[in-house]
Amino acid sequence: QVHLVESGGGWAQPGGSLTLSCVASGFNFSRYSMNWFRQATGKEREFVASIASSEYTFGDNTRYGDSVKGRFTISRDNAKNTVFLQMNSRKPENTAKYYCNRKVSWGQGTQVTVSS
Q: Distances from the Cα of 67 to the Cαs of 59, 63, 82, in angstroms?
């Protein structure tokens, strides 16, 4: 059974960095692409970033949504079955619940609130 557990959210001031983590279990982690999505109150769920499996060797293995490109970085540690999302230059519009995703499986999400 696929299990995804996010952590690292909370309240943060604008600017600076915050790193979210997602620990995965129940499948061969290194063989799958992993994604981050987010959903702000009253809005639809939005794609944030994805990282390809370790089998992908054709260049840049990451993709980003337009709203976070250049400020967020997705990475993975296959030895720890963990995918990360580093959020740099935080803005109030980054306030949302952030979800880890693999295919049709979702974590419970971790809330990030950016305000001064």
A: 22, 12, 24
Task: Name every residue whose Cβ is closer than 8 Å to that of residue 38 and which is 6 or more positions away in sequence.
Answer: 45, 46, 48, 94, 96, 97, 98, 99, 112
Question: Per-10-residue mean pLDDT for the chain, 116 residues long?
Answer: 95 88 96 96 96 80 94 95 92 94 96 90
10, exposed or middle or buried, with CB in 10 Å at 0-12, 13-18, 19+?
exposed
Least Cα distance to 98 among 81, 115, 85 occurs for: 85
The Cβ-side half-sphere exposure at 74, using a 13 Å CA radius, reads 26
Question: What's the Rg (C-alpha) of the chain?
Answer: 14
